[in-house]
Amino acid sequence: MQDQPLILTLRMDEESQAFFDAQRKLNFPPERNYLAAHIMLFHQLPNEAATYHVLTSVNQVPFTLAVTGLMNLGAGVAYRIESEELNLLHRSLSKQFTLIPQDRQGFRPHVTIMNKTTPEAARALIAELSDDFKPFTFRATGLDLWTYLDGPWRFEQHFPFR
Q1: Listed GO molecular functions (predicted)?
Q2: Is 126 part of any domain?
Q3: Which pTM does this prediction carry?
Q4: Gap between the Cα atoms of 114 and 19, Å rounded
């Protein structure tokens, strides 16, 4: 296996992926928008066969997630995601890996649509989006594993839910 760490994200249905990607395109600084919209599960997993084995063994059916509001990230904005199924999946996977401190912090699922900007720009976007925001739902369909390349990511494998 390689030395670069692995990143694990939750795959969402195609329509929702397109929506969140469009939001990033509208609001992310173009020079920093080189990733698709995503829900981060783990920032750094070991790049070894055991990681792939754990993920291949996941027995999860697709489930619904709720977008319940907006989050101020300080210098960015995200949609807040809530799902008991996602929390249970994350907790279960957490027990399978030795996690870095960042991944041991409280799990706050979200989709970032603006980042690395000013706090003023983030507050302005939250005010703009809050006017018309209505909670909505979408589906989680699997897990995606990526290699971190000091900025961009390289897709490695999809683990579909059953």
Answers
A1: ligase activity
A2: yes
A3: 0.95
A4: 14
